[in-house]
Specification:
The chain has 9 helices and 6 strands. The chain is α+β, with helices and mostly antiparallel strands.
Length: 320
């Protein structure tokens, strides 16, 4: 069975330090988490790609679902990612690309993914992005990157993911798929650092024109009051798309700045981590507010994070 990264297996796979259980946000979102582990397996530093985190904004009902720009992956690592047209069986396309050393990133249904046990697995349907490293159609088995790890599934879950259960003649859903072309070997660290610094200077002017956390704070109590009237499961979706998105985003921003230069960017990295800490704390306050239906404590809960965002951007302005 061919693979893009032949040395790795689900048993004994070691996550990158950016997914350590000791972090405030051990997982971020499926796309960034996936690339952290793919780059780790390729032998490249994922910290280098994280300058884009400065551009995250509040979009009125959610924070930007932050994703590494594809042009950044190419500039930093010479990894070229583009859409893969799906016009035949999905597994057939994946098998072809793996045979050519290319990794397919596919939007799939977490209902059939055992690594989501306790959340989505066999409980609810939802799209999530995976990268398939090994595929054995005859054995109905895959190995794949997802979130902060590397996993396998087989049997009925394989059938569900690839829609084997459809009646003959039924039209399958064709998922959005990207494929990544890798260079023969990782580029050297000097190139990574020089390019990462250049990209940070590029992304800094693309930051939101006004403080996104302060904009969120203005509507947060009203959103939570409405949230309290919904089933409690909705709480997790809301928290994921608001507090977790900006909390995880800025924890990674701090990691990026520390990787670039722990001395030069120490103040900025500290401010980024402060944002992350406040988001984590407020997530607990949010759960209490929904349970008790008392929302006044949330009015000022985000102020320290908003102040830290101002400090982060001011610190970077002095150095960039």
């Amino acid at each position: 069975m061919s693979s893009v990264f032949p040395a790795i297996r689900p048993d004994g796979y070691i996550q990158h330090a950016l997914h350590s259980s000791e972090r405030m946000w051990p997982e971020t979102n499926c796309y960034v988490d996936l690339w952290i582990e793919v780059l780790n397996s390729f032998g490249a530093a994922p910290e280098a790609m994280l300058g884009f985190t400065l551009t995250q904004d509040f979009e009125g009902d959610q924070f930007t679902f932050f994703k590494v720009p594809l042009e950044d992956l190419e500039a930093l690592y010479d990894i070229r990612v583009t859409e893969l047209a799906i016009f035949d069986r999905v597994e057939s396309h994946v098998q072809t690309q793996i045979g050519r050393g290319r990794l397919c990133l596919i939007e799939m249904d977490s209902f059939f993914m055992p690594d989501t046990q306790g959340t989505a697995y066999r409980a609810e349907h939802g799209k999530t992005t995976v990268a398939i490293n090994r595929l054995d159609v005859a054995a109905r088995r895959i190995e794949y990157f997802h979130n902060g790890g590397y996993f396998e599934l087989q049997g009925e879950d394989f059938d569900g993911l690839f829609q084997m259960h459809l009646a003959e003649g039924a039209l399958p859903f064709l998922p959005y798929t990207e494929f990544a072309k890798f260079p023969p070997r990782p580029l050297d660290e000097a190139h990574l650092r020089e390019t990462a610094r250049r990209l940070l200077r590029l992304h800094y002017p693309r930051r939101p024109a006004s403080n996104p956390i302060r904009a969120f704070a203005e509507v947060f109590p009203r959103q939570v009051e409405a949230l309290a009237e919904r089933p409690f499961d909705f709480f997790h979706k809301y928290a994921f798309n608001t507090l977790r998105q900006f909390g995880a985003n800025f924890e990674l921003a701090g990691d990026h700045l520390t990787w670039l230069s722990p001395n030069e960017f120490s103040g900025a990295a500290e401010a980024a981590r402060r944002i992350s800490e406040v988001a984590k704390s407020v997530q607990f306050q949010l759960a209490r507010a929904v349970t008790r239906k008392k929302y006044d404590p949330l009015i000022t809960a985000l102020d320290p994070a908003a102040d830290a965002w101002d400090s982060l951007m001011a610190s970077l302005a002095e150095r960039l």
